[in-house]
Amino acid sequence: MGVHCSKFFFCCGHSHLKPSLHDLSDLENGGENEKNALPSFTEFSLDVLMIATDGFSAENIVSEHGEKAPNVVYKGLLQNGHCIAVKRFNRSAWPDSRQFLDEAKAVGNLRSERLANLLGCCCEGDQRLLVAEFMPNDTLAKHLFHWESEPMKWAMRLRVAFYLAQALEYCCSKGRAIYHDLNAYRILFDQDGDPRLSCFGLMKNSRDGKSYSTNLAFTPPEYMRTGRVTAESVVYSFGTMLLDLLSGKHIPPSHALDLIRVKNFSTLMDSCLEGHISNDDGTELVRLATRCLQYEARERPNAKSLVNSLISIQKETEVPFNLLLGIRHGTATPQQPLLLTTTGEACLRMDLTALHEILQKTGYKDDEGIANELSFQMWTNQMQETLNSKQRGDAAFRAKDSVTAIECYTQFNDGGTMVSPTIYARRCLCYLMSDMAQEALGDAMQAQVISPEWPTAFYLQSVALFSLGMENDAQEALKQATKLEAKRSKN
After folding, report:
1. Residue 81, by phi and psi: left (phi above 0), alpha (psi -120 to 50) or beta?
2. Sheet holding 187-189: strands in order across?
3. Which DSSP symbol is given to 77?
4. More confident position, 399 or 211
5. What is the dihedral sign for C-alpha 210, 211, 215, 219?
């Protein structure tokens, strides 16, 4: 019997009547009322959480990646009728029980309307569990990238950015400036449709503060050099979130900055917002994102500056969140199970032979509509050499001669007369066959840049990320690929 939380939301008695957006900017993001309303941090027994989650039943998993996620999140129902979210870490995580308990208590001292607050933890034997407020209306990723009836309204996107900035400012004011792997899956919506920042990302991943999971395409430059997350790194990740809200897609910052440099804003903007957003608003958000994505960490704004920049461009501030989000008050959007396609199953198994057969069968049909830069060079020796390289690469690919295929496809790409996402996909698979996962990831991401809605690019990213041991990011890429393929099949 699964836990049903649709009638029980962890409101803890706080009123639905809230100050206006502008008033909230002068408060401690929730103030004393929120702090008094929520119970203090509690150490739960394993038995209590077992009962609350029906023995950690698979029916109660609410993780975006299901039971295959390394650290699974369950919904649970306490005996007092309060609905909770329980994050269960794998057994290799947090070997030091005292470190885990101290870290959980520090995060648990935070109380804000801008957070999905940490209510307690469990630390028995080798079990490590966190207990937080349950947010019943899905993630920002679901509403922004995988919407079904209508896209997220511009006013709601601005409000999400503003509330997220307030959450980060609050955390900074309490000495918790570090947030790990900030992304659209970390923003949750409560029963009223209010956006909140998950408290789970505030937990350190180790004593030295290193982060274990982040997609390399979205990684702050300094993290690539030092392996550490800083307060400025979090601002960089906030900039990638602004790009998500602007575009409705998960665009790599380097690609977005290239568009911004040539003032190609229209390509960056979500086409669903056409006619609903002024040029001034769009330009302001692009400008703020650019500041957040500065290469030098010291040149990025701080959290307080983000709040001040965003408050002046808020729209429809008196419209309730649930109306902007498109949900009925007090109702939850039902979770849709992820049904993998044949390609998705092959990715999950890391079955390179099956993927080779799929790419071979598909051929180059997905290159149709790609803008190739063909000119008078078509008739030159250079063009003929480029085409010869492709033909030799295809022959090697069919024969599973990955070394030769990589060499020939590289010659084709270096020719520069045509761009082909399929060539990058094929070379990606050859890199995977050659145990060159980092190079494979680069090619899969390049294919995505050329063709942002192509499922195969995300499928191959997932395999490369699995190979690199980046389980969370691999599952996210696999889910995105599945959604894109389902969307394509409907059209």
Report:
1. left
2. 115-116, 195-198, 187-189
3. E
4. 399
5. negative
Amino acid identity of residue 291, one-letter, is R
Structure tokens at 390: 């492709």
Residue whose C-alpha is closest to residue 267's, from 280, 248, 239: 248
Three-state DSSP at 204 gives coil
As annotated, the active-site residues are 181
Order of all β-strands in the sheet with 42-43: 42-43, 118-122, 129-133, 83-88, 72-77
Distance CA 160, CA 353 (A): 43
Contact criterion met (CB below 8 Å) for 310 and 158: yes
Radius of gyration of the chain (CA): 24
- Residues β-bridged to residue 188: 139, 196
Average pLDDT value for residue range 300-318: 91
pLDDT recorded at residue 323: 81
Helix/strand/coil for 419: coil
Cβ atoms within 10 A of the Cβ of 36, count? Answer: 11
Cβ atoms within 10 Å of 385's Cβ, excluding its own: 13
DSSP string for residues in 344-405: HHHHHHT-HHHHHHHHHHHTTGGGTT------GGGGSHHHHHHHHHHHHHHHHHHTT-HHHH
β pairing state of 72-77 and 42-43: unpaired
State the pairing for strand pair 118-122/115-116.
unpaired
Q: Helices marked H in 60-111 — which ranges?
A: 97-108
359: exposed, middle or buried (C-beta count within 10 Å: 0-12, 13-18, 19+)? buried
- Condensed to tens digits (0 to 9), the pLDDT of residues 194-211 reads 999 999 999 876 444 444
Q: Which is nearest to 126 in space by CA: 88, 181, 183, 72?
A: 88
The phi and psi torsions of 384 (rounded to 5 degrees) equal -65, -40
As a whole number of angstroms, the distance between CA 209 and CA 228 comes to: 7
The owner of tokens 């804003």 is 265
Q: How far is CA 85 from CA 127, 221, 322, 356, 360, in A?
A: 16, 33, 21, 40, 44
Q: CB of 180 within 8 A of CB of 128? A: no
Q: Which two tokens stand for residue 89?
A: 């870490």
pLDDT digits (tens, 9 = 90+) for 329-359: 555 544 444 577 888 888 988 899 999 999 9
First vs last Cα of the chain: how many Å apart? 38
